[in-house]
Design brief:
- The protein is α+β, with helices and mostly antiparallel strands.
- It has a single domain, classed as Nucleoside Triphosphate Pyrophosphohydrolase.
- The protein contains three helices and nine strands, in the order E-E-E-E-E-E-H-E-E-E-H-H.
- The protein has a four-stranded mixed sheet with strand order 6-3-8-7, with helices on both faces. A three-stranded antiparallel sheet has the order 5-4-9.
- It is globular and about 45 Å long.
């Protein structure tokens, strides 16, 4: 069973841990990491989550395990969920923030992934993957088929990409 480190409101390690699935104590936080992978055509690598995980579309991400930094956590999630090897230096942190129970670190990488059909998916987490345009993702959100929390981070990404181009 996975253990997670707990942090205080200043993102300092407390020395406390919880197991995956346990409630996060009041005044404590975990680290949530996400990545948006965009290809040279401007499409995003999106996964359809397993039914156990609500069956909605989302990006790759999860929670850092005990002892992992944010960047180590996202590299672990990418490898576990979709079987992709990514170099830490190719990832760009585009957002870091805090919500009620977590610090969020959102990453972006521009890369072409040939033959996504051959990716080794973690069946407990991911049913399938596909390339989707910004408009297709927005449509899925309108139809309540995209995971809300990930969509909020997607909107932050779009703003970041827009500002980066200017």
């Amino acid at each position: 069973m996975e253990k997670r480190d707990l942090y205080d409101e200043n993102r300092q390690l407390t020395g406390e841990t919880i197991y995956k699935g346990e409630a996060i104590p009041e005044g404590r936080y975990i680290i949530v990491v996400l990545v948006f992978i965009q290809n040279s055509k401007g499409e995003f690598l999106i996964q359809k989550r397993s039914e156990i995980k609500n069956g909605k579309y989302a990006t790759t991400g999860g929670h850092c395990k005990t002892g992992e930094s944010s960047i180590q956590g996202i590299l672990t999630e990418i490898k576990e969920e979709i079987g992709l090897d990514v170099k830490a230096e190719d990832l760009q942190l585009y957002y870091s923030g805090k919500t009620g129970f977590a610090f969020w670190d959102d990453y972006y990488i521009k890369m072409d992934v040939p033959n996504i059909e051959q990716l080794k998916l973690q069946k407990e987490e991911v049913d399938s993957v596909c390339w989707l345009t910004e408009q297709e993702i927005k449509q899925l959100m309108k139809e309540d088929k995209f995971f809300d929390n990930h969509y909020e981070e997607f909107e932050i990404l779009l703003e970041w990409l827009k500002n980066k181009e200017e």
